Amino acid sequence: MRKTDLKSYIEKLVAEKDIPLQKQINDMSDEVLEQVKKHYLGQDHIKRIRDMADNLAEFASEHIKDSPINDYNIQHLRSKFVNLEYDIESKFQSNLYYVISGENDKNRFIYGTDYTTVLNDLANKIRPLKEQINQLKKLRAELLNIITVSRNGKDAYKSLVAAGVDMSKFEEPVSYLPAVVKLSVDPSILSEGGEKVE
Question: What does pTM read for this prediction?
Protein backbone atom coordinates (compact mmCIF):
# COMPACT_ATOMS: atom_id res chain seq x y z
CA MET A 1 0.00 0.00 0.00
CA ARG A 2 1.54 3.29 -1.15
CA LYS A 3 1.09 6.71 0.38
CA THR A 4 0.77 8.24 -3.09
CA ASP A 5 -2.26 6.05 -3.80
CA LEU A 6 -3.87 7.13 -0.54
CA LYS A 7 -3.26 10.79 -1.43
CA SER A 8 -4.86 10.27 -4.84
CA TYR A 9 -7.88 8.71 -3.13
CA ILE A 10 -8.27 11.71 -0.80
CA GLU A 11 -7.93 14.12 -3.75
CA LYS A 12 -10.66 12.15 -5.56
CA LEU A 13 -13.00 12.28 -2.55
CA VAL A 14 -12.51 16.04 -2.19
CA ALA A 15 -13.01 16.67 -5.92
CA GLU A 16 -16.28 14.71 -5.90
CA LYS A 17 -17.64 17.22 -3.37
CA ASP A 18 -15.85 20.35 -4.57
CA ILE A 19 -16.64 20.25 -8.31
CA PRO A 20 -20.46 20.25 -7.93
CA LEU A 21 -20.23 23.16 -5.45
CA GLN A 22 -18.05 25.17 -7.85
CA LYS A 23 -20.46 24.43 -10.70
CA GLN A 24 -23.43 25.52 -8.60
CA ILE A 25 -21.71 28.83 -7.81
CA ASN A 26 -20.76 29.40 -11.46
CA ASP A 27 -24.28 28.61 -12.68
CA MET A 28 -25.86 30.98 -10.15
CA SER A 29 -23.37 33.74 -11.01
CA ASP A 30 -23.84 33.30 -14.76
CA GLU A 31 -27.61 33.47 -14.42
CA VAL A 32 -27.50 36.74 -12.47
CA LEU A 33 -24.80 38.15 -14.76
CA GLU A 34 -27.04 37.58 -17.78
CA GLN A 35 -29.84 39.44 -16.00
CA VAL A 36 -27.49 42.33 -15.23
CA LYS A 37 -26.29 42.52 -18.83
CA LYS A 38 -29.83 42.45 -20.19
CA HIS A 39 -30.88 45.13 -17.74
CA TYR A 40 -28.02 47.52 -18.51
CA LEU A 41 -27.36 46.68 -22.14
CA GLY A 42 -30.81 45.59 -23.29
CA GLN A 43 -31.58 42.68 -25.59
CA ASP A 44 -30.10 44.21 -28.75
CA HIS A 45 -27.83 46.92 -27.33
CA ILE A 46 -24.67 44.85 -27.66
CA LYS A 47 -25.22 44.36 -31.41
CA ARG A 48 -26.02 48.05 -31.82
CA ILE A 49 -22.92 49.04 -29.88
CA ARG A 50 -20.73 46.81 -32.07
CA ASP A 51 -22.32 48.24 -35.21
CA MET A 52 -21.64 51.75 -33.90
CA ALA A 53 -18.04 50.78 -33.23
CA ASP A 54 -17.62 49.48 -36.79
CA ASN A 55 -19.19 52.65 -38.20
CA LEU A 56 -16.86 54.72 -36.04
CA ALA A 57 -13.81 52.84 -37.30
CA GLU A 58 -15.01 53.27 -40.90
CA PHE A 59 -15.51 56.99 -40.32
CA ALA A 60 -12.02 57.27 -38.84
CA SER A 61 -10.40 55.54 -41.81
CA GLU A 62 -12.21 57.82 -44.30
CA HIS A 63 -11.99 61.22 -42.63
CA ILE A 64 -8.97 61.42 -40.38
CA LYS A 65 -6.34 59.39 -42.24
CA ASP A 66 -3.69 62.06 -41.82
CA SER A 67 -4.04 62.43 -38.07
CA PRO A 68 -2.56 59.45 -36.20
CA ILE A 69 -3.44 60.99 -32.84
CA ASN A 70 -7.11 61.27 -33.74
CA ASP A 71 -7.05 57.86 -35.37
CA TYR A 72 -5.59 56.38 -32.19
CA ASN A 73 -8.28 58.05 -30.11
CA ILE A 74 -11.02 56.72 -32.39
CA GLN A 75 -9.58 53.19 -32.26
CA HIS A 76 -9.30 53.42 -28.48
CA LEU A 77 -12.93 54.55 -28.26
CA ARG A 78 -13.95 51.72 -30.61
CA SER A 79 -12.24 49.18 -28.36
CA LYS A 80 -14.19 50.58 -25.41
CA PHE A 81 -17.44 50.07 -27.31
CA VAL A 82 -16.54 46.54 -28.31
CA ASN A 83 -15.33 45.62 -24.83
CA LEU A 84 -18.34 47.07 -23.01
CA GLU A 85 -19.89 43.65 -22.42
CA TYR A 86 -16.57 42.29 -21.13
CA ASP A 87 -16.16 45.35 -18.88
CA ILE A 88 -19.53 44.67 -17.26
CA GLU A 89 -18.65 41.00 -16.74
CA SER A 90 -15.27 41.91 -15.24
CA LYS A 91 -16.75 44.52 -12.91
CA PHE A 92 -19.51 42.12 -11.90
CA GLN A 93 -17.05 39.37 -10.95
CA SER A 94 -14.88 41.86 -9.07
CA ASN A 95 -17.86 43.27 -7.15
CA LEU A 96 -19.14 39.79 -6.39
CA TYR A 97 -15.76 38.79 -4.94
CA TYR A 98 -15.70 41.80 -2.60
CA VAL A 99 -19.26 41.22 -1.43
CA ILE A 100 -18.73 37.50 -0.75
CA SER A 101 -15.45 38.13 1.06
CA GLY A 102 -17.14 40.73 3.25
CA GLU A 103 -15.18 43.63 1.78
CA ASN A 104 -18.35 45.43 0.78
CA ASP A 105 -16.85 48.70 -0.46
CA LYS A 106 -19.72 50.66 -2.02
CA ASN A 107 -17.24 52.71 -4.06
CA ARG A 108 -16.61 49.60 -6.12
CA PHE A 109 -20.21 49.49 -7.36
CA ILE A 110 -20.93 51.34 -10.57
CA TYR A 111 -24.51 50.48 -11.49
CA GLY A 112 -26.67 51.83 -8.68
CA THR A 113 -28.88 50.53 -5.90
CA ASP A 114 -30.73 47.85 -7.90
CA TYR A 115 -27.43 46.32 -8.99
CA THR A 116 -26.10 46.34 -5.44
CA THR A 117 -29.25 44.63 -4.17
CA VAL A 118 -29.00 41.89 -6.81
CA LEU A 119 -25.33 41.42 -6.01
CA ASN A 120 -25.96 41.15 -2.26
CA ASP A 121 -28.77 38.62 -2.82
CA LEU A 122 -26.48 36.49 -4.95
CA ALA A 123 -23.63 36.77 -2.43
CA ASN A 124 -25.93 35.60 0.38
CA LYS A 125 -26.76 32.46 -1.63
CA ILE A 126 -23.14 31.79 -2.56
CA ARG A 127 -21.54 32.42 0.83
CA PRO A 128 -22.65 29.07 2.42
CA LEU A 129 -21.36 27.21 -0.65
CA LYS A 130 -18.03 29.02 -0.40
CA GLU A 131 -17.85 28.06 3.26
CA GLN A 132 -18.32 24.40 2.33
CA ILE A 133 -15.51 24.72 -0.24
CA ASN A 134 -13.22 26.29 2.35
CA GLN A 135 -14.00 23.48 4.79
CA LEU A 136 -13.14 20.94 2.08
CA LYS A 137 -9.80 22.67 1.44
CA LYS A 138 -8.98 22.63 5.13
CA LEU A 139 -9.97 18.96 5.50
CA ARG A 140 -7.96 18.03 2.40
CA ALA A 141 -4.82 19.67 3.82
CA GLU A 142 -5.24 17.91 7.18
CA LEU A 143 -5.82 14.47 5.62
CA LEU A 144 -2.88 14.82 3.25
CA ASN A 145 -0.75 15.80 6.22
CA ILE A 146 -1.83 12.63 8.08
CA ILE A 147 -0.60 10.61 5.12
CA THR A 148 2.66 12.57 4.78
CA VAL A 149 3.71 12.19 8.43
CA SER A 150 2.84 8.47 8.58
CA ARG A 151 5.74 6.03 8.41
CA ASN A 152 4.26 4.09 5.52
CA GLY A 153 1.08 3.51 3.57
CA LYS A 154 -0.28 0.94 5.98
CA ASP A 155 0.05 3.30 8.95
CA ALA A 156 -1.45 6.14 6.91
CA TYR A 157 -4.44 3.97 6.00
CA LYS A 158 -5.05 3.10 9.66
CA SER A 159 -4.78 6.78 10.64
CA LEU A 160 -7.30 7.81 7.97
CA VAL A 161 -9.76 5.16 9.19
CA ALA A 162 -9.22 6.30 12.79
CA ALA A 163 -9.92 9.91 11.67
CA GLY A 164 -13.30 8.79 10.30
CA VAL A 165 -12.55 8.76 6.55
CA ASP A 166 -14.69 6.32 4.55
CA MET A 167 -12.09 4.06 2.96
CA SER A 168 -14.62 1.52 1.63
CA LYS A 169 -14.09 2.66 -1.99
CA PHE A 170 -10.31 2.68 -1.77
CA GLU A 171 -8.85 0.15 -4.16
CA GLU A 172 -5.19 -0.56 -3.80
CA PRO A 173 -3.63 -0.72 -7.26
CA VAL A 174 -2.62 -4.22 -8.25
CA SER A 175 1.12 -4.63 -8.30
CA TYR A 176 1.92 -6.71 -11.33
CA LEU A 177 5.15 -8.70 -11.21
CA PRO A 178 7.02 -8.75 -14.50
CA ALA A 179 6.28 -11.85 -16.55
CA VAL A 180 9.06 -14.34 -17.15
CA VAL A 181 10.54 -13.53 -20.54
CA LYS A 182 11.99 -16.23 -22.77
CA LEU A 183 15.09 -14.89 -24.49
CA SER A 184 16.47 -16.10 -27.77
CA VAL A 185 20.04 -15.62 -26.56
CA ASP A 186 21.43 -16.86 -23.25
CA PRO A 187 22.02 -13.73 -21.08
CA SER A 188 24.96 -15.43 -19.38
CA ILE A 189 27.15 -14.04 -22.13
CA LEU A 190 26.89 -10.70 -20.32
CA SER A 191 28.52 -12.06 -17.17
CA GLU A 192 32.29 -12.07 -16.66
CA GLY A 193 33.87 -14.87 -18.59
CA GLY A 194 30.62 -15.54 -20.39
CA GLU A 195 29.74 -18.38 -18.06
CA LYS A 196 26.14 -19.32 -17.31
CA VAL A 197 24.93 -17.92 -14.01
CA GLU A 198 23.23 -20.54 -11.81
Answer: 0.65
